[in-house]
Amino acid sequence: MARILGTGIATLDIINTVDGYPPEDSEVRALRQDVRRGGNVANTLSVLAQCGHRCAFAGSLAQSPDGERIAQDLSLRGIDLRHARRVAGATAPTSYILLNARNGSRSIVHYRDLPEYDFEPFSDIPLSEFDWLHFEARHCVELETMLAYARSLVTDQPLSLEIEKEREGLEFLYSYADILFFSRAFALGRGFEEPEAFLREARGWAPQALLVLAWGEAGAWALQGDTLLHAPAFPPERIVDTIGAGDTFIAGVIDAMVSGHPLERALEEGCRLAGRKIGQHGFDGLVEHKPVFRGQALCPVTALEDPGSRGFEVEINGRMRSIFVVRQGAAVHAYLNHCPHAGTELNWQPDAFLSMDRRHILCTVHGALFTIDSGECVLGPCRNQSLTPLPVSIEQGHIVLNTEPSR
């Protein structure tokens, strides 16, 4: 389970399904109507939450009935809204969508009268707590400030950016991203009919980034350095609803990559999940086979450096407790975040539980050192005492807290 922050937009989508597009100045009946929460980043986060990740939304939410409807939907999906900006007296962004039942194509009329998310609330987010930062390219002048700020703080966490459509100032964003997700509509709008030609051109915009391009029924391509990769599409038996297929593709790629899978597998998983999406209405039930663990899944093993550490808040015996895990080679160890000397938590910065040489667990309050494999204090005021160990195992590439404390 990874901690993923998504910065972008959440909307109210009003979708009328029709039997073929009506001609101009005509009147038709809708076959069905769906009113649901939409928005690129919000859709991506809702799919990632289905995959079991802990997601947080950074964007503007109107304090209005429609805005509350959007917020409630996100909350019910387990998406953290603490970093959202609430705007009083505003109107929720709305997308009016005609969905063609014959082929799944859609036309959208957007109404936007909500101030965009800006740097001020973003600067209050503890970015180091997240394993992945994903952004939607919009409001580019302000977004550049956010990206530069994030880039100055995070080191190991990937920073991904979705480029869906042309916006003024896009060229100033490319250099900050580790991964750029492009849409086919964007590539076509730039005059490119072939994915490879577009990606080779885009390599000059962002030499440092992994470039990913979804191309609908033809699958998806990625350019990693000079290596071009391709994954086929996985079309459903019948195309039902293409709305949010690109957002779902991005979620599939992020889920696979943050879970430690290679890029080839990530592209395939993104295409597979997008294919499932266009075969149904909405986003519910997209993830068919969640990993089943014998305890609480904490995070993928690959989310920790070797050696490395990370803190968590978990429920133990009906009580929320602060714990941490340490990875050392192929082994992982977990302890209560509670020093036996003074009873304080060991760390003063998030996830920082190791000494400078990473050979011991460190209590930053009084400098006590503990062995990684047993938790025994070997230096400091609580010498010969030990941290409280917790039983953990590695299952399906994840660190899992199995039972209650052993003592």
Please describe what this structure looks like.
The model has no long low-confidence stretch (mean pLDDT 91). The protein has eight helices and 24 strands. It has two domains: 3-278, UDP-N-acetylmuramoyl-L-alanine:D-glutamate ligase, CATH 3.40.1190; 296-401, Rieske [2Fe-2S] iron-sulphur domain (Rieske Iron-sulfur Protein, 3-layer Sandwich). The radius of gyration is 23 Å and the shape is elongated. With 407 residues, the chain is of the alpha/beta class. Helix 1 (40-50) packs across helix 7 (245-258) and helix 7 (245-258) runs antiparallel to helix 8. Helices cover 21% and strands 30% of the residues. It has helices at residues 40-50, 65-76, 119-122, 140-153, 184-189, 195-203, 245-258, 263-278; strands at residues 3-7, 11-18, 32-38, 54-58, 60-63, 85-88, 94-100, 106-111, 132-136, 159-163, 179-182, 210-214, 220-224, 227-231, 296-300, 308-316, 319-328, 331-336, 360-362, 369-371, 377-379, 389-390, 392-395, 398-401. An eight-stranded mixed β-sheet has the order 4-1-9-10-11-12-13-14, with helices on both faces. Strands 3-2-7-8 form a four-stranded mixed β-sheet.
